[in-house]
Amino acid sequence: MTATDTILHVWFEQVWNLGQEDAIDRLMAKDAIVHDAGPEAVIGPEAVVGPDAFKPFFRKIRAAFPDIRITVEQVVAEGDLIVARCAVTGTHTGDGVIDPPTRKEVRFTGMCMARVKDGLLVEGWNNFDFLSMYQQLGLTLA
Q1: Whole-prediction pTM value?
Q2: In the chain, where do the E strands start and end?
Q3: Cα dist. 121→34, 69, 96, 98, 108 in Å?
């Protein structure tokens, strides 16, 4: 495995950086479980299941941050698990996350751990610093 050929590298590049919604279907199992999929998601037992349930979150974030860029800075893999440490940048120019758009740039970090089976993402856990994102957009959370 080289530094840029993991499924998470492909996921972040094709899905998020290039905005290829069809890559979600190619890379995610039909019954994949995604925990913590979004800034307002407190999912716990109510996880997002499957590509069709994930796509509204994807569309919302891509609409709000059309220039989003997620850079995988480091990966660690063991067995069927892979963890990626990421840096996120983008400009809030669209509706969806906070209305109206603030036109502010954001930079924050996060981590994603995924379980992979037969070359597909079957389960994922996300921990991104959305508080920092909201603060950079000029919002405070009570």
Answers
A1: 0.85
A2: 28-35, 48-49, 69-78, 81-91, 105-117, 120-128
A3: 9, 20, 26, 29, 24
- As given in the structure block, the two tokens for residue 85 are 């440490």
Structure tokens at 6: 């993991």
* Residue from 36, 12, 104 nearest 65 by CA: 104
Q: What is the CATH number that goes with domain 7-136? A: 3.10.450.50
Q: Report the helix count and the strand count for the chain, using DSSP H and E.
A: 4, 6
Q: What are 1-14's pLDDT values in tens digits?
A: 444 579 999 999 99
pLDDT at residue 142 greater than cutoff 60: no
Domain spans of the chain, in order of start: 7-136
Q: Tokens at residue 25, please?
A: 């279907």
Q: How far is CA 70 from the centre of its chain?
A: 8
CA angle, 109 as apex, 22 and 35 as ends, to 5°?
A: 55
**Cα end-to-end distance, the chain, whole Å:** 44
SS3 of residue 47 by DSSP: coil
Span 63-86, pLDDT tens digits = 999 999 999 999 999 999 999 999
Q: Tokens 């279907």 — which residue?
A: 25
| Dist CA 30 CA 124 (whole Å) | 13
